[in-house]
From TrEMBL:
Keyword terms: DNA-binding, Transcription, Transcription regulation
PROSITE patterns registered for this protein in UniProt: HTH_ASNC_1, HTH_ASNC_2
CDD domains: HTH_ARSR
Gene3D superfamilies reported for this sequence: 3.30.70.920, Winged helix-like DNA-binding domain superfamily/Winged helix DNA-binding domain
HTH asnC-type domain segment(s): 3-64
GO MF term set: sequence-specific DNA binding
Single GO BP term: response to amino acid
UniProt-recorded name of the protein: AsnC family transcriptional regulator
Organism: Marinomonas pollencensis
GO CC annotations, alphabetized: cytosol
Amino acid sequence: MKFDRIDLSILKEIQQDSSLTNQELADRVGLSPSPCLRRVKALEESGIIDRKVTLLKRSSLGLKLTAFLQISMDRHTPDRFNVFEEAIDGFPEVRNCNLVTGQNCDYLLEVVVEDMEKYHDFLLGQLTRIPGVTGVQSSFQLRSVKDSTSLPLDHLI
């Protein structure tokens, strides 16, 4: 799909605030409401806009501990990975799970919980009980330096 300046402006604006009304978005990108709505619909139908979500503030919800986990598996087989991925999908504490290469692990996870006690319960009560998990290395977030949900778009110009 080819993008023009207005498409990119729309994408940049809604990445920052998807709750904008169509009128507000149109004003920001320099369109009238009808053409703006048509462009947004076209971006949705093309699959460029995947979904719209509301971001919640972790600390306001008592989720004060963020851990980054490196997970090692015993076997590198599709069935072993499928079992792991299906189990992880059922854990609301896991914000992100990525199968990776080039590390001394197979998966990188971001886990958000209330405190160290809840992390301990999650680690020993759920994560290490998944068949095939042979190692877990944990790092804990001290401070978030950058927390963005926006994708870079300048390469599309």
